[in-house]
Specification:
single chain; mainly alpha; 7 helices; about 85% helix; globular
């Protein structure tokens, strides 16, 4: 599963799902940023994120606390998106839309207050997002493909087709090297977010 050929095959199969994950996330941003929506539940989500930030600020070393909270939170969500996605890909689908909507809602509100949103994106998202977002899309892509290939395997098995579980087994095997890559990307992203982004947003 770690050979160049296996990794190339895995990427070829997962790539459409990764692209779809990215499109879904950005669609969520547009929906979240749309005015006049009923967004009470998004405010609750933001409150939860704010509570985590407050908890980190109260620590003896806030930046280290930020790093730990960000990394553990992002890694656990990625693992959940990847493996709970086996249930028809529903969890990663909802997670992508929700995360996109939260960002859209947050930046939409800032734009309404006259903030320069593009500057906020450059300072608050871009430095760590360049690694964090592809890691999220990769995890969700694997989650949705696991769900899809499981359903496909059930139908192929029921219809007596040859190798009904081949795609599912290949996808499941591909999650192992992908998880190693995702963990490394999130580790570096958390380091950037707790230092560079922290400094940029505070300046």
């Amino acid at each position: 599963m770690f050979t160049r050929r296996a990794l190339a095959l895995s990427w070829r199969e997962i790539r459409p799902y990764v692209v779809f994950s990215a499109l879904l996330f950005f669609a969520g941003i547009i929906v979240g940023g749309a005015p006049n929506g009923s967004m009470d539940w998004l405010r609750d989500q933001l409150k939860g994120i704010g509570d985590l930030a407050d908890k980190a600020r109260q620590a003896d070393n806030p930046q280290l606390a930020f790093f730990r909270i960000i990394f553990i939170n992002n890694l656990s969500k990625s693992v959940m998106a990847m493996y709970i996605g086996i249930v028809a890909g529903i969890f990663p689908f909802i997670m992508l839309l929700t995360n996109g909507m939260i960002i859209g809602y947050l930046f939409g509100g800032m734009a309404d207050q006259g903030e320069n949103v593009w500057l906020l994106v450059a300072k608050g998202i871009l430095p760590h997002g360049i690694l964090e977002l592809p890691a999220l899309f990769l995890a969700c892509g694997f989650g949705m493909r696991l769900g899809f290939t499981l359903i496909k395997g059930i139908f192929r098995s029921a219809l007596g087709k040859p190798e009904p579980w081949g795609a599912f087994v290949r996808t499941a095997a591909g999650t192992i090297p992908a998880l190693v890559l995702i963990a490394l990307m999130l580790l570096v992203a958390a380091g950037i977010e707790s230092t560079v982004t922290y400094w940029l947003m505070g300046s």
